[in-house]
Specification:
The complex is a heterodimer. By secondary structure, chain A is of the alpha+beta class. In chain A, a hairpin with a 2-residue loop joins β4 and β5. The two termini of chain A are about 65 Å apart. By secondary structure, chain B is of the alpha/beta class. Classes of the chains: A alpha+beta, B alpha/beta.
């Protein structure tokens, strides 16, 4: 502060000194001009009335204020005449210039003093104002610094709100503070999201190991039973077959879980590219075709032309397979599953309609939860980990799409999927 | 009370009663909830459950009898009316069932109107981007009466999005639309909310629409009954 304060004082002193010099010089010039004028006027008078020379000198010596009102005086032109120049010379010789100059200047000295005083006051006021402004700026910077320190320590959300006070706080400062506050709120959000993601990963690991325990236990049981000595060949073959089925189930589950964890932990990024939606839908249908044929379920597809939309083919197909697989799994034999696709403004609407068991109203929200299985669904099909719709929703939403289900009045479910074009 | 600032919206013990004596209606009866940034929350409930009143209070359209609402850490009812109106225009986007478009202004003008009211500079490219996203790029000069219901609601969505508010509040946005248009509006709303990183709180009685939300809050008799 000391160094900078001195510098400021020096700056102000400098400004004041130069003001003093310039002002004094200006006043001196004004004084000179005034005296010149007076002498010229006097010279003019004396040119016209040489006989009054001594009177004029007397009057002039008394000062300008005592002069009678000068009327009808021929001015400038006379000053340049030979005669006037002569009188001026005479004046100079007779009375001397210097004396007169200082005399006339005396009249202006008061004026000069007032000017200097006004200058002093002005410069002091300016100095005070700037000092105050500087102090406020320093306060602002200190507050900014404190806030940034707080950010560094992780306290993003605690930026206090500013009371609107137009007198103390300029609008710019309020804006700075407001964006700082918003930044803090944003950082806090990021921090919370990060923590949540971490927590989510932990739950995911727990959930997955839990999901693997049951099928592994039944596989182990089969294996141990098959290893018993007292079994007939027939029984042994039965257990081996059972073992095979359990392994198959475990493989499917593992595949689902790998997909899930990959998507969940952002290990795979969806890369939507323009591609034929028809191809993706046919791909999905063909994957569930055999399952459907086994139950004599007909899959109808009704697609409006060939829609080229931006989507990740592989994962979108996976999502649709999950929805179609459910439709087939939870429908009775000899029913129909219909797939429709049509453009809606800047989106495509894909509908998957079945004539199956439907979803209970209170379960509508829950079916998208990870590892959730509806009561009726669990009764109807033993296999399934409650991953399908969760995955489907994640895949679709990551691409800016939506999924929602509606219970049909005549039984069955319609899944409606949208994807942006 | 110190607010948790990761929550973009905090509603604390909100109360709003109408009428008196026999006719006392407990529209909002000690409701509290918190909403996170970037989340899509659906508020469901039967008609008359007080969900609309709650939304109006959250949006600062009405003042509560008791309780507080914080939006981005700001206690909105501590603001005087004119400042509250200003805050509302800047931080809250509204989408209503009946669109609330100004009939004498075209689509573009309707969208930039709230920006103009606060003398905010209208970034043409931003508005264009929103119009593009919402599929109304070729309708900028059209008057509202020449639009279909879905297009009107999309205009209202674009208007809410253009101001880049902290939170968007929607009151039955598909209530007046048929099933197909409903999907059209909802899919756009959802993808826009995702693309622009917006927080959306939406009232609906539609089961299928509530499914699209990240979170569903059920209201009955002015109280939060399930979350």
């Amino acid at each position: 502060m000391g160094q900078r304060g001195n510098k400021k004082v020096r700056k102000y002193a400098g400004v004041y000194l130069s003001f003093l010099v310039i002002f004094s010089f200006f006043m001196f010039m004004v004084a000179r001009y005034e005296i010149d004028r007076e002498i010229r006027q006097m010279a003019a008078l004396m040119t016209i009335h040489p006989e009054l020379e001594s009177e004029i000198i007397t009057i002039w010596k008394k000062g300008a204020s005592q002069l009678p009102f000068r009327d009808g005086l021929p001015e400038e032109d006379l000053l340049h005449s030979k005669k006037s120049r002569h009188i001026m010379k005479l004046l100079e010789e007779k009375y001397g210039y210097d004396l007169n100059y200082s005399r006339a200047a005396g009249g202006l000295r008061g004026f000069w003093g007032a000017g200097v005083c006004a200058g002093t006051i002005l410069i002091t006021v300016a100095g005070c104002l700037e000092w105050r402004k500087n102090r406020m700026e320093r306060d602002y910077l200190r507050e900014l610094y404190e806030c940034l320190e707080q950010f560094r320590e992780g306290g993003f959300g605690d930026v206090p709100e500013y009371e609107p006070n137009a007198k103390r706080n300029s609008e710019e400062w309020m804006k700075v503070w407001e964006s700082l506050r918003e930044l803090g709120v944003y950082f806090e959000g990021l921090k919370v999201r990060l923590k949540e993601e971490e927590k989510n990963t932990k739950t995911l690991v727990t959930d997955i190991s839990h999901q693997l325990k049951t099928p592994l236990a039944s596989l182990r049981m089969c294996h141990e039973l098959a290893a018993e000595d007292q079994l007939t060949m027939e029984e042994q073959r039965e257990f081996r077959e059972q073992e095979g089925r359990e392994i198959e189930k475990l493989t499917t589950l593992l595949r689902e879980l790998v997909n899930l964890s990959r998507l969940e932990t952002h290990m795979v990024q969806l890369s939507p590219v323009p591609a034929s939606l028809k191809k993706t839908i046919s791909g999905a249908v063909s994957q569930v075709y055999m399952k459907a044929r086994n139950k004599d379920i007909e899959i109808q597809a009704d697609i409006d032309g060939d829609l080229m939309i931006c989507h990740d083919e592989k994962w979108t197909e996976e999502a649709l397979v999950n929805i179609l697989d459910n439709a087939v799994k939870y429908s009775g034999e000899h029913t129909t599953v219909t797939v429709r696709a049509k453009p809606v403004v800047r989106n495509v609407l894909i509908e998957v309609e079945d004539e199956g068991i439907g979803i209970k109203k209170e379960e509508m929200q829950k079916v998208y939860q990870r590892f959730y299985r509806g009561n009726d669904a669990a009764k109807m099909a033993k296999d399934g980990a409650g991953v399908g719709l969760y995955l489907a929703r994640m895949i679709l939403e990551r691409q800016g799409g939506t999924i929602s289900a509606r219970q049909k009045t005549e039984g069955g479910t319609v899944f409606r999927v949208t994807l942006p074009c | 009370m110190k607010t948790d600032s990761s929550k973009i919206l905090v509603v604390d013990d909100l109360v709003k009663y109408y009428g008196a004596g026999e006719n006392l209606v407990r529209a909002v009866d000690h409701s509290s909830l918190q909403i996170e940034r970037g989340a899509f929350t659906a508020i469901v409930g039967r008609s008359g459950s007080g969900k609309s009143t709650l939304l109006h209070l959250i949006g600062g359209l009405d003042r509560p009898d008791e309780g507080k609402v914080w939006i981005e850490g700001k206690d909105i009812f501590s603001l005087k009316d004119d400042r509250l109106a200003q805050f509302r225009r800047k931080k809250i986007g509204f989408i209503f069932q009946d669109f609330n478009l100004i009939p004498s202004l075209n689509v573009w003008e309707n969208i930039v109107l709230p920006l103009g009211l606060d003398n905010r500079r209208v970034k043409r490219e931003d508005v264009r981007e929103v119009l593009e996203k919402i599929g109304l790029a070729d309708k900028a000069e059209t008057m509202p009466n020449a639009l279909s219901g879905g297009q009107k609601q999309r205009t209202a969505i674009a208007r809410a999005l253009a101001a880049r508010p902290a939170i968007i509040l929607a009151d039955e946005p598909t209530g007046n639309l048929d099933s197909q248009t409903e999907m059209e509006v909802m899919s756009l709303m959802k993808s826009c909310v995702t693309d622009f990183g917006q927080t959306l709180v939406m009232i609906t009685h539609d089961e299928a629409i509530a499914q699209m939300a990240d979170r569903v809050i059920e209201i009955a008799d002015g109280k939060v009954v399930s979350d």
